[in-house]
Amino acid sequence: MAGQPDLGRADLVSMLAELTAKPVDQVPDRIGSMELAWLVHLVEQRYDRRMELSDDQLAGIRTVDDALAVFHHSLTAPADG
Amino acid sequence: MDDVLFTGRPTDVCLRLPEPVDKATLRRLVSEAQTRLAAAGLRPDGAAALRLPPSLAYVVNLLATWRSGAQAVLLDHRLTDHEVDRALRRLTPQVVVAPVRTGGGALRIFVDVTEGITPYSDRPAGSPHAVIQLSSGSTGPSKVIGRTAEDLVGEVHRYTRIDGVALPGERIILLPSMVHVLGLVGGLLYGLHAGVELVPPERLSGDAILAAVAAQDTPATVLGVPFHIGLLASTTPPGPLPQLKRMTTGGELVPAAVARAFTDRYAVPLGNMYGMTEVGVIGTDLYGANCPAIAPAPGMRVRESDGELWVSCPASPYVGLADPTRWSDGWLHTRDAGTVDPETGLVTVKGRLDSQVSVGGMKVDLTEVEATVAELPGVGAAVVVWDDGITAYVQPDGPLSEETLDKLLAERLAGYKRPRTLHLLDQLPRTTTGKLVRSTAALRDAAS
Predict the structure, then answer these.
(1) Closest by Cα among B337, B358, B132 to B225
(2) Rounded alpha-carbon distances, angstroms, from residue B142 to A54, B62, B98, B139, B170
(3) pTM for this one?
(4) How many domains does chain A have?
(5) C-alpha torsion B417→B423→B426→B427, nearest 10
(6) Helix/strand/coil for A45
(7) Smallest Cα–Cα separation from A39: which of A73, A59, A64, A75?
């Protein structure tokens, strides 16, 4: 995939809203391991590709913004790693 | 133990990781681990604390501990050092088994672990139980729950009599942690006993779960918690999956919309189980026929007392705790609100009567979270409530930032117990007599 993926913060927030059945404006900024697994799953479904993420990358994710940065990095990496 | 768990032929595959592990291999690994545990100081009267993520090392050391005649203390690998130190001081195992190296990549369900064994004490186990598990406690520290070998074997046999569980020769696609009761007894011990292959997906995603189902021709039951239903409901299968027989979840009620999305997509039964760490499986609805009610499992008696569900439990499962409001005269007081239909015996669970909540199937007592927040330096007072997620309202008694609070909590509480939302308030709302207000509406108002 070339260039920046069209994945924004609002996309992640709406994915979390789906998980927690909350309105998007009430989705907490902090995310735990379950929310993170959900986001990875849905982003992979959306782009039909697997993100190669390390334990360290995931461990460093505390917020929606952290997740967005890591996902952008992974999605802009060459698909064959 | 061998009569219950090492049944079947030596060549029978019991685990697929995805490399097959047969009974003979498992038995050899267990025997080698017994030697290592003994060399580190584990005696038949002692306890081994296992602080391992779900892994072959966990399975091997758990079985080796039992074959050594010792007690296994199961510590969730997500607990912090602070939580583990407190548990170890209380339970004084003879050895602690923990990873010295883990690998395998992110979101793994089963982890590659090289374990190390560290001597801890020379004291005998504090109780005659085969397994000790910790449950988030209502008084701050965790509750210590013990189950005897006889009780665990009884639960394994109970599973064999439940219509709708995976049958010998079939597979369980195992998602819940084997440190907790559903994955431990409903997955690992039942699978070993009944000759059901246990298959943890390569990682936690819908695609990986479906790939695990498709990897063999034999019928597969997916065992998980409601979160996993959502994962599958939002995954498009690459093709037909005739192997998928059923999905069964425990831990909490499944939202109707999620259940419908799953059954629409996969057209297989979505079963539900109700159980507790203290007694294991209590009741099931594995065909989804009685939703949201469950039928008591064979041999389990459930009754309603003043709106609370009580479950037959011959001896108190609590170690070092004599609380007649939790267990009395052969009955466990579940603290679940519910009803028992006098005609059919069906049980409907209607939620907690105390401060326990479920986060992805993990039980968390808000009192433990609140006590931990309130004890932090810089915190004057705190109220922790469930507001569609663990939410903490904090009144600082000095300079305190959200970032500092986050950092301090990360040192003291496992991730799944930590508040998702933090509010710092100059003054927490109080009643006219000075008590902290716990109403979510009043707290939201104060924070807005």
Answers:
(1) B358
(2) 31, 21, 20, 8, 37
(3) 0.90
(4) 1
(5) -70
(6) helix
(7) A64
Per-residue pLDDT tens digits for B77-99: 999 999 999 999 999 999 999 99
**Percent of residues, chain B, with pLDDT higher than 90:** 78
Q: pLDDT by residue (tens digit) across B287-308?
A: 999 988 999 999 999 999 999 9
Query: CB–CB of B234 and A41 under 8 A?
Result: yes
Check: CB of residue B175 under 8 Å from CB of residue B225: yes
Please give the interface size between A and B, counted as residue pairs whose CB atoms are below 8 Å apart: 65
Q: Which two tokens stand for residue B203?
A: 């990682």
Cα of B303 to nearest chain A Cα, Å:
32
> Which CATH code for domain B368-447?
3.30.300.30
* ipTM of the prediction: 0.88
Say if A53 is an interface residue toward chain B (CB within 8 Å): yes
B148-354 folds as: Rossmann fold (3.40.50)
In angstroms, the first-to-last Cα distance of chain A is: 12
Burial tier of A55 (Cβ tally within 10 Å: 0-12, 13-18, 19+): middle
H-only helix segments in B175-288: 181, 190-194, 206-214, 226-233, 256-266
Angle, CA of B183, B64 and B86, to the nearest 5°: 70
Name which of A14, A15, A30 to mutate to probe chain B: the one with the most chain B Cβ atoms within 10 A of its Cβ.
Answer: A30
CATH of domain B1-147: 3.40.50.980
